[in-house]
Amino acid sequence: MVGARSGASIERMFVLGIDPGLTRCGFGLVEGSFEGAESFRAVRAGTIETDAGLPVEIRLRELHVELASLLADTSPDAVVVERLFFQRNAKTAISVAQASGVAIALAGMENVAVRQFTSQEVKLAVTGYGAASKSQVQGMVARLCGLNEVPRPADAADALALSIAYFMIVRVERRYPQDARA
Questions:
Q1: What secondary structure letter does DSSP report for 143?
Q2: Annotation says 19 is catalytic
Q3: Contact, 136 vs 116, CB < 8 A?
Q4: Is 155 one of the annotated active-site residues of the chain?
Q5: What is the pLDDT of residues 151-161, one digit of tens each?
Q6: Whole-prediction pTM value?
Q7: Domains, the chain, with CATH or none
Q8: Which of 31, 121, 155, 158 is catalytic?
Q9: Has 173 been annotated as catalytic?
């Protein structure tokens, strides 16, 4: 999508952030650009939930159906999925990895570019501090998107942060290409 500002066109994109989880998977669609001021618009955010009492294959199927519908409804230009960096609980890590795989595969099936960032990378991109608290990140999400309050539930706010991180990180990558950063 292209918008006009002072006679010049500005590249606007829609980025879908996914905070993967099998019990609760957060999603957040953000509209933004790589030029001008850091202004973002939270278009849609929420969670997809599955019943922990159901077999894992049924839960993954439900997540697949819901995420496929979300991708079809939102037609994002890019998808960002949180990368599992460290997890003390192996059972939780496995279910998060499974949910992450579903999201990445679906984006790939739609030929949508996928990026993955760790929570520390998201914190650094959104707040400027890689060890920021969850509440600091969520507060910045609200501020950057011009929202009166922090999006709820937390998984939705985290997904919006992933989308915002995409814009911040790609903006830096465009300004300082890889070969110039060596």
A1: H
A2: yes
A3: no
A4: yes
A5: 999 999 999 99
A6: 0.90
A7: 2-180 (3.30.420.10)
A8: 155
A9: no
